[in-house]
From TrEMBL:
The chain crosses the membrane at residues 48-74, 86-108, 114-133, 167-185, 216-241, 253-277, 289-310. CDD domains: TM_PBP1_LivM_like. One of its GO terms (molecular function) is branched-chain amino acid transmembrane transporter activity. InterPro entries: ABC_transp_permease (IPR001851), LivM-like (IPR043428). It is a multi-pass membrane protein. Keywords: Cell membrane, Membrane, Transmembrane, Transmembrane helix. One of its GO terms (cellular component) is plasma membrane. The keyword Transmembrane helix applies. This is High-affinity branched-chain amino acid transport system permease protein. It comes from Roseobacter litoralis (strain ATCC 49566 / DSM 6996 / JCM 21268 / NBRC 15278 / OCh 149). It is found in: Cell membrane.
Amino acid sequence: MLPRLPILLSIAFGLALLLAPLGLDDWRLSQLAQLLTYGLFALSLSFIWGQVGILCFGQAIFFGVGAYVMALVTLGKFPMLGDSQLMGLLLATLAAGGVAFVLGLFLFGGRGITGAHLAVVTLCAAVVIEIAAGRWAFIGGYNGLCGVPPLTTPWPREDIYLSGLETYFLVFGILVLVYFLLLWLTQTSFGTLLAAIRSNEERTRFLGFDVTIAKLFAFLLSGMVAGLAGGLFAAQFGFVSPQLIGFALSTEVLIWVAVGGRGVLLAAVAGALLVRWGEDQLSDQLGQYWLLATGLLFIVIVVVAPRGLFGRVLDLSARRKS
């Protein structure tokens, strides 16, 4: 493969998203903005799974916490905080990070939990929190919360609600910022430490590095990104429900990242866009059998392409290795 090909393809992918408004109407642009929100969510899991080697089966916990906090703030459930969307997004990010920090302390503190045990514990946590959310009346119980206000401008004007084009560029801009932040982090000495932990955690600990703190910080950062995606989701879809915080969505994001390529951040985003778009197409064409077809495709892709569909062609580190 040509050394510069991953760079050229990454730039082409970014330009395609940047120029997408030129060829899409307002409705399709809104759909693409929603897909980018899922891409941001996938980015959070790719960072913790692909870069650190932590397979989290409960990533939707942080996404759901962000979505619920955004809904509660903008619906005025916390009068002392106001109903600002900026405050909602900020608190959604911080609250999800706080939950990730507490869960990370439990997972990585002491002797720590790794591998399949960590996956099982996070899966169980997602199930338990989904059930608890469904029985908590303050956050709407099983019906969730409806009527979450759409995104608005922070300054006064005649129509304060963002158009489809404005919403798209807002979500696109956030996605680009978070992507470059995480990409930069993976290329620092801290990123090297995370890669060492992924390669051999015990050896890294033996060399004197504080593995627990590094994993905890990475987990917290991943949770904050997922919470930000959840906050954007709540404003775009106008509702939140316990399904956002549970096992089903946690499994979906695993599929997006695995199909795209868990070891490459941009590949995870591309995987989320492809799978979500493909699910819509299959559900239209195959009716009730679309889920079966999606599962079979996922199995084939994981077996045939273990690095994902885009893991090799978008791997920017391949040029440095060559």
